[in-house]
Amino acid sequence: MIDFWLSAAVLLLLAVVVVVWPLWRRRAHERVDRTALNVALYEERVAELQAQQRAGDLTEPQAEAARQEASRLLLEDTANADAQRAPLTRKVAGVLIAAAVVLPAAVVGLYQLWGNPEGLALYREMQDTPQVSSLEALIDRTERVVEVQPTNGEAWYMLGRAYMSAQRPADAVQAFGNSLNQIGEAPDVLAQLAQARYFANGNQLDPESVAALDKALELQPNNATALGLLGIAAFEAGDYSGAIGYWERLLQSTEPGSQGAQAIQGGIDRARERMAAAGQTPPEAQSGPSISLRVSVAPELMAELDPASSVFVFAREPNGPPMPLIAKRLTLSQLPLDVTLTQADAMLPGVTLSSEQSLQLVARVSPTGDAREGTHLGQLDDVHAGSDEQLELVIDRAAD
């Protein structure tokens, strides 16, 4: 920060010089001009007296008296001019001296009031050392970021994740709550907030956590954090069937054979063992009829749509509640794409598909990522699961 203040001091000094220099030059110029004029008038009067003396119009004593009078008038005129100019000069000098003293103090005070020296220092620190060496250093830096940028929802989210890594769930609840206030109902923030509340409450889901998870799954049906947490909570509560349902949905969106998939499958297997040990019949691995379709966009609409927009493909009962039974989330850039909807894509545990069911199939484009809002859609009515036919679902019109 030293170089910043030195630069500011130089600029302030230049500003004072720019103001003072023209006034000083003008005052000096006026003084020289007035003195020169008085001297010229005096010399002209002396020459005139000499000419009159040579012509015999004036005697020597008369000419000498006139020269003395001219000298006296020269001195009086110069003294009067300086006396008249002195008060104004003192006033101007006083104003300039006051401005020279007040201006730097005012600039520094206004910068402290409206400026952001902490933010500037933090910015330079992040440029000099973009990577931190420890979790504690990351938390310290992110705390300073949200201190100077309290409306930065992304920074609050990062701070919440850092708190969770440091086993500080209570602090993470506050951070995720602030992020939610700034970003809005983002699925990842909702799910992380619920997870932080779960650990802060001694591994218990409170009503606020359940509401946050429901909203996260409504916006993003396959949100991994929400499904994983609901499965854990169900398992610890002895609801092994519910845990299996959530984890099987999570497994469908996990890369096969990955460590994550193996861990999820291990949890499913333990839940089945617990059910068998308790004399309960574990649910069969999710199967049943499926819906095969190809999702695409009408060519004339492609230029109007953002390729990064979300596309929600879901099936619901035409005369039932508006919440979908099964859903998948895609991005517009993936289309056209072959999609298969199964019970593994169910929004809630216990949802089953039947070939006798009449379903409405919808693909909705949402630039905001909110499943409830969309700009364009495609729709198929009277769809039945289990058909061998591949359906064509084309996004071809603006949403109502």
Automatic annotation (TrEMBL):
SMART domains: TPR (SM00028). It is found in: Cell envelope. Its main location: other. Residues 148-258 form the Cytochrome c-type biogenesis protein H TPR domain. It holds the Pfam family TPR_CcmH_CycH. Residues 291-396 form the Cytochrome c-type biogenesis protein H Ig-like domain. This is C-type cytochrome biogenesis protein CcmI.
